Every structure is written in structure tokens, then in C-alpha cells.
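re: ur question from earlier - yeah i can do the single chain one, its not a big deal. heres the input i used so u can compare w yours
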Amino acid sequence: MAIRQNSVDWKTIIRRIKGGKCTPIVSYQVSSRHFSDNDAVVSAWADELGYPLADRHNLARVAQYASSIRADALSAKEEYLDFLKRRLLNRVRQKQPPDQNAFLDTLEDELFDLNFSEVAARLDYPRYESELDDPLRILAELPLPVYLTTNFASFMEDALKAAGKEPRVEVCSWRKNVEADVPSVFEQDPDYKPSAEEPLVFHIHGLDARPSSLILAEDDYLDFLFNIAQDPETIPRRVAVALANSSLMLLGYHLQDWDFKVIFRGLIASRRSSRRLMSLSIQLTPDPQGVDNLADAQEYLERYFQDANFEIYWGDVQSFMKELWEHWEG
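and the output i got, formated as C-alpha cells:
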């Protein structure tokens, strides 16, 4: 069965970007090159925990189990971040020449005092052969005022800094203890207005520097949905305006993932007005081995996004960003 061809309205997308009316929403999977297989990472943590069920690749459920066997939910989040730091370091050890052992030994001694983003930066991860291969770096070069991400690492703001910009960081206060632990940039600077030169990076699902802010387990996702429904001010006004009045670009999400379900139903479909602007979702073509009928599967995905005025780009994020950059430069 033939794969659907893309018919993206590039002129509209470029126009919206130039006007600051485009808002990317970036999954952690966009920069997951620091691990070869995310499912394998979660399964390895499940093995370490002694997770007893078959769905050991499901992070939300494995994290829920970790919360039940540890002192509290925060301990489970801290443990997951520690696991990621160790796994990244061990992966680098396997590939680095022996003359790097001293550096890696020193870094290992410092792991406790570093967050995951800091460890990744020391190890130069995620690493790409060129800037055009890095989707985040291309995004950072665009004149956008607001970036949303469900990645708890600081990769988006690092890319913006590399592009010569001065990003401000806001973490979603989805629970009261998060608000107390992470002060709002809008409270610290009431006059701040996101711009292309000083953009806002809004971490929807928390930031590794503040483990209490992470949305990791199933209960976290449910609490997030409940709390943003009860208190709309959980989402800063500047972010809410971007969600409602700009073209959105969903990058790196899969329909079956908790992070997609929560942001799409909780932040996009529930907040956008009837006069929605055209938006894009970047979707990998369904694996023919995992579906009975490829054309039917693609048609289902298109119908799913249609009501929210989303077009689908069939392909990976890296290919989409390269094509977007070609149109931007052209």
C-alpha cells in the first residue's frame, strides 16, 4: 500500500513563523539520541526496580510502581533521574577511547551533585554531525517567542543559547509544591514579554533541576489534568495565548503516549477556540508490521487530528526540520 504524500502549506507556516505566530511543542523523543532505544531504557529501569508486569516499556506505569515501593513519589523521580545519568555515562564509556577514562571517572564522582542536563552537557549530548541534523538547533534559529516542551532536560534552552539568544525558563506549576519550589519568571520580572531574542521555554512536564516538578507516573498525569481544569491560571497567560492563537507544531509525539494524550486533550483541544489556526503534527508512518491496513491507519490518524485543524506531515522530525529550513532559507 502506498504511503501518503505530504502536502504541507509551507507558505502559511513560514508566514506564521515570521510573524511570531507559530509555537513548537517538543517531545523528549526529539532529542532522545542520548539513548539508542527509549523503550530499552525504561525496560532497564523496570528490571532494576523488579517491576512485575509485562508492560515494562511504559514509563508512566513503571514510575507508578516505583512510587509505590519507595518512600514517596519524589524519591521515585530522583531515582529515575539518577538512573538516566548512570546509563548515559555508561553508554559513553563503551564508545570513548581509553584516554577519556580519567575524565569519565571524575564525572562519575560528581554525578550526585549534577542534574541530568548538566551531565549530558559535560558529555556533549545529544551530539549531531552538523547543526542541520539537530532539530532543536534549527528551531532555535527561528524567530519564535515561545517554545513548549515535555522534555525535562534543558536541551531546548541550550540550543537557543547556542543560537545567540537569551531564553527564559518557566516550569508548569501543576501542583502547589511545584509552585513553591520553582518561582515563576513572570513573578520575578512582571514586565517580561517573550520575544525572538529573549524567548520563553515552558517546561510542561517539569525540569530535572527540580525533581518535584516532574510529571512521570500515571498519578502525576491525572493530577496535572485535574489541576489545570480546576485552575486555568496554572498555565501562564502568555502560554495560553500562544496555544490558542498561533499555529502549533507537535514534534516527536505518538498517539499512544501519555505525554501526547495529556497535552493534546488537556492543553490543545480544550483551550483552542473555534477559529483555530492551521497546525502541524509530525507523525512517523505507522509500522506496516504493527497494523492490519496501513492506509486505514493513516486515515485514522488524519481524522483524529482534523477536528483540531491539524495537518499531518508523514515522516521523522529530523526530515521535517530540514525541509522546513530549506523553505525558510528559500
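Strands lie at 22-26, 146-149, 168-171, 200-203, 247-251, 279-283, 310-314. not sure if urs matches, ping me
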